[in-house]
Amino acid sequence: MSAPPTPRRKRSRPKSSTAQTQLTLYPHTNAVTPPKRQAKPARRPPAHAAQGPAQAPTATPKQADLFTHPLPPLPRQHLNAQDIRLTAIPIGHLATTPEKDQWLYLAVPEPTAAEYLAHGITLSRTHPLLLATLRGMQAWLAKLHEQEDPEQLDHICILRLHKTMVAELLEPEPDQSALFAAPFYWLKTF
Fold first, then answer.
1. Tens of pLDDT, residues 122-138
2. For all residues of the chain together, what is the average pLDDT?
3. Contact status, residue 138 vs residue 94, Cβ threshold 8 Å
4. Model pTM greater than 0.85?
5. Any idea where the domains of the chain sit in the sequence?
């Protein structure tokens, strides 16, 4: 017969003292917990702040958008040359100018152009001005060059104005637009 099995003894781990198991995570202090931080010295206010009570910062006014200058309400009878950014453009310069939708062009005789530049444009319901995009003005001048004496083109001045400044006064002109395959507009007062 065999001997009865002897109960196995549980191995017990030796209990260690806290002195043996103390971990030194922070070797410079020999502590397990992080060292306490010292409070920073109080910050001194700048020299200019000590001169008086705090003042609220003043808001600097923003510059107005140059292309949204407020125009007088409708109906208008007169457009100031500076308000609509009216400028004279040499005819030879039209061929090299890149197409931009922001400008409209007007062809008038030289004396009329000088008056418009000096005093602005007076609007009329019965005699509206015909404005064109760059492509339309180039096509119109090409047709005029074929039909007229080239010397008469020397007396024509091309004026350019900003489209957004007169957008509410524009009315599409379907006949010229179809003829030249480019947008043309009437500039008139309503």
1. 888 888 899 999 999 98
2. 76
3. yes
4. no
5. 78-187
